[in-house]
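Supplementary Methods. Inverse-folding protocol.

Structures were first reduced to a discrete structure-token string of length 358. This string, shown here, constituted the complete conditioning input.
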């Protein structure tokens, strides 16, 4: 870099491997032209690649449990340990690195994506976004509407020409108050009645446990923060279960599917689904039943929903790992600094044709 500086050349800097979303946020906040790039491949190919590098199944499992562990924000190491999912959610650019179709063409796909990316970094707006990027950007916009306090996900449904039919984000059914707007003390003091269910307001076991757990938050409440809570976590901690039935929210994909049934629209048989995460088992089943042909997703670790549901039977949706820019990088890379026509005009002085009187 220093050498380039003395020679009057520009530098592109690649930082190889950030471990934690907080490191990424630090750089994203300070460097305007910083792009967090996530490189991933379908999970089954990742497992084969690791096996080829002599990792045993046991070793892979232990790597996964560190990289995909449950984070406790009260534990100090959470802020420095590897958090792949957190980094994936914060990434600006996704490169997919699936196996090539031949030995010689192994890296062609990845090389093309990188070439495109660097061209856009050097010359924003030199080409326009792909249909995939445009659609994923809409899903990405939708996710910010989610009132879930643990995770925000966005989804989009298009027909097979990328014509947008519906959007959704994970949230409570319309009419229920989203988790981020509810407050523990409001429940116990009988305020904000509309925000809480009859079960929450009347079940004795629930209320007693809730009171007990509330002690933990007294200090935080004094700081003026809204102490909201996740009903599912409360319920599961009382009954020592890990039941997913008690989430208050619908998933982003479900909400997108339902938007069409709710307000009317056209059938989505043969259409595409975009999700800023990856479809869970329940949403994968709905997508399958609706005849969705392709699912574009970002998080490459979708549990068993691909192997068990998507790949079951004979009318399987095709799963494609998203590649492209979203969020701030979408705007940064695709907004031209000036209209190309103006640039050309400024660089090429006008030639006045001879013979025409001035
Ligand atoms: Zn929630
Ligand atoms: Zn789901």
């Amino acid at each position: 870099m220093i050498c380039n500086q003395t020679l009057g050349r520009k530098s592109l800097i690649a930082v190889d491997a950030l471990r934690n979303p907080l490191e990424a946020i630090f750089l994203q906040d300070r460097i305007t032209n910083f792009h967090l790039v996530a490189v991933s491949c379908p999970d089954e190919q990742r497992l084969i690649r690791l096996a080829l590098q002599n990792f045993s199944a046991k070793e892979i499992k232990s790597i996964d449990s560190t990289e995909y562990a449950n984070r406790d924000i009260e534990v100090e190491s959470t802020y420095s340990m590897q958090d792949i999912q957190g980094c994936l959610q914060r990434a600006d650019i996704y490169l997919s690195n699936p196996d090539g179709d031949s030995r010689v063409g192994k890296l062609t796909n990845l090389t093309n994506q990188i070439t495109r990316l660097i061209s856009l970094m050097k010359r924003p707006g030199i080409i326009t976004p792909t249909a995939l990027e445009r659609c994923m950007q809409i899903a990405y916009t939708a996710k910010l509407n989610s009132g879930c306090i643990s995770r925000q996900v966005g989804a989009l449904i298009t027909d097979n020409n990328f014509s947008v039919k519906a959007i959704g984000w994970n949230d409570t059914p319309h009419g229920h108050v989203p988790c981020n707007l509810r407050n523990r003390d409001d429940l116990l003091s009988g305020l904000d009645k509309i925000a809480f269910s009859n079960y929450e307001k009347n079940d004795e076991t629930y209320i007693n446990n809730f009171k007990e757990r509330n002690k933990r938050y007294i200090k935080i409440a004094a700081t003026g923060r809204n102490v909201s809570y996740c009903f599912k976590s409360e319920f599961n901690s009382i009954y020592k279960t890990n039941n997913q039935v008690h989430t208050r929210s619908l998933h982003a994909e479900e909400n997108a599917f339902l938007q069409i049934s709710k307000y009317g629209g056209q059938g989505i048989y043969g259409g595409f689904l975009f999700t800023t995460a990856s479809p869970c088992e329940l949403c994968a089943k709905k997508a399958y039943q609706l005849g969705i042909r392709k699912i574009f997703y970002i998080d490459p670790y979708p549990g068993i929903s691909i192997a068990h549901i998507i790949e079951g039977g004979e009318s399987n949706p095709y799963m494609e790992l998203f590649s492209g820019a979203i969020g701030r990088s979408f705007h940064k890379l695709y907004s031209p600094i000036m209209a190309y026509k103006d640039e050309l005009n400024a660089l090429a002085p006008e030639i006045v044709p001879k013979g025409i009187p001035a």
